[in-house]
TrEMBL record:
Cofactor(s) this protein cannot do without: FMN
Species the sequence originates in: Promicromonospora vindobonensis
PANTHER family: FMN-DEPENDENT ALPHA-HYDROXY ACID DEHYDROGENASE PB1A11.03, S -2-HYDROXY-ACID OXIDASE-RELATED
Keyword Oxidoreductase belongs to the record: yes
Gene3D superfamilies according to UniProt: Aldolase class I
Record-linked SUPFAM superfamilies: FMN-linked oxidoreductases
Domain FMN hydroxy acid dehydrogenase: 1-428
Protein name: Alpha-hydroxy-acid oxidizing protein
Length: 428
């Protein structure tokens, strides 16, 4: 009898892949271009080696840490992953495409709550953040923002995040244009052309106003455009989702509204004119700590801190944005050093947190990232694979495997607390 959720990262990915349609797998596992950076993110971990130590009393160990003033059971968070419902619906053996129960994000939130680890709620979540917040209870949550071209929508998302109990805002800077995702392109797959892909937006009052304005404008100027390509398939898909979605917004969708929703989303989801000075505007919109995600250069880390960021997330979006980009892990130590030695930082304040993602698959990977200067890591694709295999139990199992191996690795490296892990634990 073999466990449903394998402990080996490759076996985990392979098992999840067998359960999915090609489109779901391509969306989840795929990266930019020739997939070189996806591979490089993993290969980089092979270039740093942990040095085991002997005869250290490691009988009492703890993974506990604090992050932005809050105690956490381990230095691990759930990375924001958009359009999750679309991916999980594309499972084989669950009644086929579109027939699976709508349970991806509630299952994720269940697991995050049970583990007590923060969930970073995606802007592009397939469930409104208020519903996820209800499932999370008192468990920690952050909100990940894609900086919309519409100021009022940004303000609305931030206000909803605050009201939903989020204790930090993570603004993702590396996706102001979407990468060249070859696997999706070749299958003609656009997850955000489906209602679940943009449910976070559809549940937003400002977004609804934008859509309604577009519906009115389209109806008066060119009623013939309702059959225009390329959004017809998207509209059809939205309508089929609307039929069984419990929320009032989707239930009331009419065809022009559905099409306008997708078009509005594509219009407003990002803003590629941003520069560092714009960060002050966002900084003024919330009292919550503001973290920037997607940093890979020490100068960008310094600029972020100079312009009001309270934390840095080193990430290359799991290799989904720039192919041939440097492995995320190779940028971690220079960025962490830049943050630690930053001139403007007040030594009386708690240190600015540096987080890392892109390539974490195992507990040993977490150890390596902490050794290179991360205070915590975000787990991405592995928990999605766990979710696809076994719902909330799968997310819990994957995360517990990572934490168990981190704990063992600490023991075998002669370390009892995550804060002790440093470059001295690596071979140079
Ligand atoms: C992501 N990521 C992401 N990031 C973000 O800020 N907002 C988002 O909505 C998403 N959506 C998303 C969907 C999917 C399917 C993937 C795989 C990734 C990036 C994510 O937060 C994280 O940076 C990467 O997943 C890290 O890479 P690995 O460890 O998963 O390879």
């Amino acid at each position: 009898h073999r466990p449903v959720v394998p402990t080996s990262p490759d076996a985990l990915a392979a098992a999840a892949r067998r359960r999915m349609t090609r489109t779901a797998w391509s969306y989840l596992a795929g990266g930019a271009g020739a997939q070189r950076t996806v591979a490089a993110n993993r290969e980089a971990f092979g270039r740093y080696r942990i040095v085991p130590r002997q005869m250290v009393d490691v009988g009492q160990r703890s993974l506990a840490t604090t992050m932005l003033g809050r105690d956490l059971p381990a230095p691990v968070l759930f990375a924001p992953v958009g359009a999750l419902e679309v991916a999980v619906q594309h499972q084989l053996g669950r009644g086929g495409r579109g027939a699976a129960p709508r349970n991806a994000e509630p299952a994720l939130a269940d697991a995050a709550r049970d583990l007590g680890l923060p969930l970073v709620i995606s802007s592009q979540a397939s469930t409104p953040m208020e519903d996820t917040a209800a499932t999370l209870g008192d468990s920690p949550r952050w909100f990940q923002l894609y900086w919309s071209s519409d100021d009022a929508l940004v303000e609305s998302f931030v206000a909803r995040a605050e009201a939903s109990g989020c204790t930090a805002i993570v603004v993702t800077l590396d996706t102001h244009v979407l990468g060249w995702r070859t696997m999706d392109l070749d299958l003609g797959y656009l997850p955000f052309a489906r209602a679940e892909g943009i449910a976070q937006y559809l549940s937003d009052p400002v977004f609804q106003q934008l859509v309604e304005a577009r519906v009115r404008a389209t109806a008066s100027s060119d009623p013939g455009t309702t059959t225009a390509r390329p959004t017809v398939a998207a509209v059809r898909s939205l309508l089929s989702m609307a039929a069984h979605h419990p929320g009032p917004t989707l239930r009331n969708l009419t065809q022009p509204y559905a099409r306008a929703a997708v078009e509005t989303f594509l219009d407003v989801f990002s803003r590629s004119t941003l520069t560092w000075t714009d960060l002050a505007w966002l900084r003024e919109r919330t009292t919550l700590p503001l973290l920037v995600k997607g940093i890979q250069h020490p100068d960008d880390a310094r600029a972020a801190l100079d312009h009001g960021a309270d934390g840095i997330i080193v990430s290359n979006h799991g290799g989904r944005q720039v192919d041939n980009a440097v492995a995320a892990l190779d940028t971690l130590a220079p960025v962490a050093d830049a943050v630690r030695t930053h001139a403007g930082t007040d030594p009386a304040q708690p240190p600015v947190p540096v987080l890392f993602d892109s390539g974490i698959r195992t507990g040993a990977d977490v150890f390596t990232a902490l050794a290179l200067g991360a205070d915590a890591v975000l787990l991405g694709r592995p928990w999605v694979y766990g979710l696809a295999l076994a719902g909330a139990d799968g997310v819990r199992a994957v995360t517990e495997h990572v934490l168990a191996e981190l704990d063992l690795t600490m023991a075998l490296a002669g370390v009892t607390e995550t804060g002790q892990i440093g470059r001295h634990n690596l071979a140079v």
